[in-house]
Structures are given as C-alpha cells and as structure tokens.
Amino acid sequence: MPHTMGRKTKLVKSMNTSTRLLDQSFNQDWLAFITTYGALRWFSKQLPALADPLDEQIVEELAEKLADVFDEPSEQIRSELIEFFPNLEQDHLYPDFYNEPDLKDIFQTFRDTNFRHHVLKWQRENSQKANVFLSAWGDYMAQPPLSGIVLRKSVLINLVSLLEIFVDSLLKTYSLHVSQDQKQPERLDWQERWKLLEELIPAEKWLPYKDTLREMIARRNALVHQGGRITEKGYLRQTQEINSLRPADAAEGRFLLVPTDYLIEALNTVVLFAFALNQAAWREHKSKKAVQVATNLIYQMLRQKQYLLVEQLSEIALPGLEWKDQQLILVNLSIAYREQRKTNQLNETLQRLDRKKCNLMTQMAKKILREQNSAARDLLKEIAKKNQIHKVSIYWPLFDPVRNEDWFRNLFAKRPSELPSHSPRKF
After folding, report:
1. pLDDT at 272 over 60
2. Which of 56, 101, 240, 424 is deepest in the core (most CB within 10 A)?
3. Is residue 251 part of a domain?
4. Residue 345, domain member (yes or no)
C-alpha cells in the first residue's frame, strides 16, 4: 500500500509539473503576441499623422510635373489629383499604371473626377504626345504617390507574420508538452498549419475566422511576392475557394491595396482568432490562466473604447466559464453597451446578472449601470469597510458617470496611500 501511494504522489507531481510548464509556454506565446499586436494597432492609428505630410509633398511634385505637360496651373492639377487618387479608407484595387499603354483603360477604373476628364480630354487633343504624359505619370505611379498605401501594406504584412509566429509557437508548445509523439516540421505553410490546428485544438471557437484569415494571408502573399499584383497562380488561386471575400472586380494584373476599413477588420480578426485559439487550447488543459487572459484583454479593449471588440471577445470568453468568472466579463460587456447606447442589450445583460447571486463588486457595478448612484455609493462604502477598496481601480470605465461626483472623490481621498494603480487585473 505505501508503494502504491508513493507512485500516485509522484504521478500527481509529474502532472502538476507538466501543467505548469504548459501554462508557462502558453503564457509566453500569448504575451509575445499581444505585446507586438498592441504596437501594430497603435501604429495603425498613427498612420494618417505619419503619412499625410509625405503624401502632400509627393502630390505637390506630381502636380508640378503634370502642370508642365498640360500647360495648366499646378494648383488646379493638385486639387484634381487629391480628388482622383485611391480612397485610402475604402478602395481595395488600383490598375497597372506602368505597363498599361491605353489611358482610357487606366482611367476607366477610377471614380468619375475632374482629373479623369482632364486627362482624357488632353489625350484626345494631344494624342501624339500621350507618351509624354505616360512617362511623367509612370515614374510616380509605378507605386502610387501615397505613403499611406505603403504603410498600410506594411502593417498587414507584419500582422500576418505575427500571426504565423504565434500559431507556430502554439503548435510547438503542443508538440513539446502535449503530443510528444507528433513531431512538428521545421517550417510550416498555412495548409499544414490549418491541418495541425484542426487535429490538436478544439475548433469551435476559432474556426469562424478561418476564411477571412485565408483572404488576408493571400493578400499579404501578393504584397510580398508579387508587389501587390493579382496573378492567376497567386492571389486568385489562393482565394478560389473563398472568392466571395475578394474585392469586387479583382482581376489579374490589377494591384491590391489595404484600405483603412480593411486594415481595421484585419486587426480585429487577428486578435479574435488568436484569443479564441488561446482560450480553446488553455481550457482544453484546464488552465486557470485562460480566465485571467480573458478578463485582462476585455478590460484593455474597454479602456481603448474598442466596444465592438469587447462584445466579440466576451462572446468567445463566456461559454464554459464558472459563474464567479463570468461576472466581471458581463459587467465590462454591460459598460460597452452603455457607451454605445445599446439600451436593450444593456438591460438583457443586467437581467442575466440578476439571475444568480453576485459578489459585492458586481452588485455595486449593477447599481451604477442602472444609474442608482446612492445605492452604489453605499455598496462602495461597504467595500471600503471590508478593506477591499484597494481592489477597485478608479480608472475603471464603469465609474465615468460618477467620477466627478464629490462623494466618489471623497471616498478615495480618505485613503490616498491605497489609491490603486492602473492594473487590468483589478476592478
């Protein structure tokens, strides 16, 4: 009997060690991903301020050059160019300016603008000089004179590369700590990655993002390997099973852009996929870290006013959690609804919180969300009496409606040494 107990103790210790190592590896993978992702998201928000001065200079130079060709004032040409160039917020495609000899074919793809009419009128009247225009135009438009285009492409390329690193690290962790009998190849392509993910990690949470990611990956490949040009053997082949996700009028020979709307969706899709993958992997192995990662990420997105992401992340995180772990996520989800004035969804979520017994913090949060501030003040005082006020972050967006109230400021002013630091792990 003693020998049996000894073997069981060793087995439990071995299992605990294995779980701890798995936790550490998953945590390192996630922290490396989310840190770099945060930097890319921040950079994408700064793009207009970074790119606009450079763009203005390039447009000015092009206007001066074309003013000589057309014998028109450069100010007029400049204003027409600004109207004419691809819309960085929405346009997905632009034509091959450099290799297309027919001006009509080039300009047919653009919006009906003054500059387009100007050029086509000039061509009709000066057909023998078309090569003069094409020479000036091609020098600038082999890559459009918009730094924002290049920088947006760069963000997408780095975003997909980050995703590859995260997935490969996750799969390596599995091969080392979970499925030692399954050796991971040195280098993986995306077809192999998808196959391994479906074999190793429950797909329910992350599979809905797969097709959108496949189009993003194909676009990134076109940007890296074909300079953005759409080819039959490249982008079109890689998206043939998901052709509904291609830009309208995508055709061989045209060039792919990364408009702002697309880039925002790409950033959102990548973090949702990575989070879903992370949660599925960790929960499969009963790790408590999954809850901490979920609450931290949702809190941070709430602080950044990314309310739609808060909704989507909560939808991924909530199923399967114990009630004690659901409460904070539901409260932060309610705050996101409040800030978006989604009254029906806010009320439904609060009713969901009413159905079960809630901790004191959640009770206080419900009062503020229902604008019952006197009751919320009493509960905060009760929290303070229990020496738990240090767990309440004054930066929590929950408190935005009451932050400037005297009673709220006085409650924390009584204990200046205990004012909480800005930590996503606290309320």
Report:
1. yes
2. 424
3. no
4. yes
Assess if residue 236 is contained within a domain: no
Give the best-scoring range by mean pLDDT among 32-36, 137-141, 393-397: 32-36
Q: Is residue 271 part of a domain?
A: no
Residue showing tokens 């600038």: 140
- Predicted TM-score (pTM) of this structure: 0.79
Out of 147, 182, 217, pick the residue that ends a domain.
Answer: 147
C-beta of residue 277 within 8 angstroms of C-beta of residue 201: yes
Count structural domains, the chain: 2
Domain end position, chosen among 118, 147, 176: 147
